[in-house]
Amino acid sequence: MAVGRSRLARVIGPILIFLGALLITAAIAGPAYVAGKLTTIPLDIDTTTVAKSEKVADSQADAEFPAKSLDMCSIDKGKAVVNEVSVTTQTRTLVTTPSDKSTMTVQSGSSMVVPSIKTKGEPRHPELTGAVQDKRPCDDGLVQAWLDRVSLDRETGKPTGKTSEATYQPGESTPAVKIADRKGLQYRFPAGTTQDGKYEFFDLVTRSNVGLKFVEEKEVSGTKTLHFQGQQNWVDLSTIRDSNDPTLGTVLTMPAGWWGIGGVDPKDDITLNRWAKTDVDLWVDPTSGVIVDQSLHYTQQFRLPGQVAPNTPKPVRDFKLDVFDAKQRWVDATVRSQAEVAKSAQNKIAVAKYVAPVAGGVLGLIALGLGVFALFLGRNPATAGGPGTGGRGRANAGSGDAAPTAPLDDEPITTPDVGGDPATEAFSAQPRPDESQTEAIDFRKRDER
Q1: Membrane-spanning regions, if any (predicted)?
Q2: How far is residue 286's CA from residue 288's CA, in Å, rounded to a whole number?
Q3: What total number of domains does the chain contain?
Q4: Treating both helix axes as pointing N-terminal to C-terminal, what angle do 2-38 and 356-379 enclose, rounded to 10 degrees?
């Protein structure tokens, strides 16, 4: 039995040592590889976010109608009308083809609607007709809709330049607009986002990159986030041209009286351009790069282009008409959902970086120790029964009369065949029994004499 156990120990020992070394190596080198895979943006993204307009600080707007929007029906009236409204934006973002281990194609569709308008102090709910842009009624509730497609690097979240296009006229069969010089982040930040990192946000409305700066650390829905903020300069939307023509609705010519410009003839036609800017606030989970909360403040106004004639009247030069002003922030349900996504990613990264390596290292050390111990037992099978006794020394240890026996060799001992040789017969012959009679001596009788 001892011999069998020693042989088994000699087999199991190296296996345990190999397994222990493998676990320790995996514990040391594995986290960098596994965590690297987990920190890339996953390909199963399919999220829906909802943002609603909120009151801007120091604003006198009604809390129920915190935004402003030009009444398109007033185009045919004598004067421009800007309504107090509420605005809701819904966005669905998912990953589509082509996507691989290093790049991904993201498709995001957004619709911005006006669910309610303040009319004579009461809310009015416009209809969403779903008609194409040039046939929509003037009181349609749809403000803007767009479909964005962009290829992103799965590690950095930055555009790769392979695919970058957007459709700004939903329902029409017009081709998508190619977007060049797209550098800003939009749907995901890189894992390991830092306070001092240099990041940009890409704004689809102005098709420009907005520089971001770190503001503060803040806990949002139970998740520690980094707050980044970006303030954009005004962009003349008429300069963003498609097919060498200004985008529809970015240049408008109306009488001065319609604009409400004083100091000039009300019948004089005044051509103004549509300007826009987007101020950005993002709350980002630094571990996973998930955007937990988002606020986009869209502002648009009609005013003169950047270069005007020297003889332009001052009232015209100074005139500005706000035609859209809405600060859109994600609703609580969206924030909670994004926070859960961030926490799930955090847990996976933590397991790969810390829990698995520690567990693997401990198990590796245990296996290594057991393997060394097994080899030690396999190389010293006689230590349990005493030197030179082997396994049989233990069996005979309790008998004082039994003669010691030599340990058995692997091969049985055979008696050589002497072949009848007289020279060897004398040594191999069995001794004859002693048949002589012996007398017992009684020492007691001898002493009596």
Answers
A1: 12-34, 354-377
A2: 6
A3: 2
A4: 160
Query: Do 217 and 123 fall within a single domain?
Result: yes
How far is Cα 75 from Cα 72, in angstroms, rounded to an integer? 6
Q: Is residue 411 part of a domain?
A: no
Query: Residue 14 corresponds to which amino acid?
Result: P
Based on the fold, state whether residues 25 and 46 are members of the same structural domain: no
pTM of the model: 0.73
CA dihedral 363, 365, 369, 372 (to 10 degrees): 110
Q: Within this chain, do residues 119 and 23 fall inside the same structural domain, yes or no?
A: no
What's the DSSP call for residue 338? H
Same-domain pairing of 45 and 29: no
Domain of 115 in residue numbering reads as: 40-330
Task: Enumerate helices (H) and strands (E) in the chain, giving the number of each.
Answer: 8, 19
194 and 256 in a single domain? The answer is yes
Q: pLDDT by residue for the chain (449 residues), tens digit each?
A: 556 666 666 667 677 667 766 666 666 655 555 555 667 899 999 999 999 999 988 888 888 999 999 998 999 999 999 999 999 999 999 999 999 999 999 999 999 999 999 987 788 888 877 655 556 788 888 888 899 999 999 999 999 999 999 988 655 566 788 998 899 999 999 999 999 999 999 999 999 999 999 999 999 999 999 999 999 999 999 988 765 455 667 899 999 999 999 999 999 999 999 999 999 999 999 999 999 999 999 999 999 998 888 899 999 999 999 999 999 999 999 999 999 999 998 888 776 565 556 666 667 667 667 766 666 766 655 444 444 444 444 444 444 444 444 444 444 444 444 444 444 444 344 445 555 454 444 544 444 44
Domain check: are 22 and 133 in the same one?
no
d(CA 372, CA 31): 27
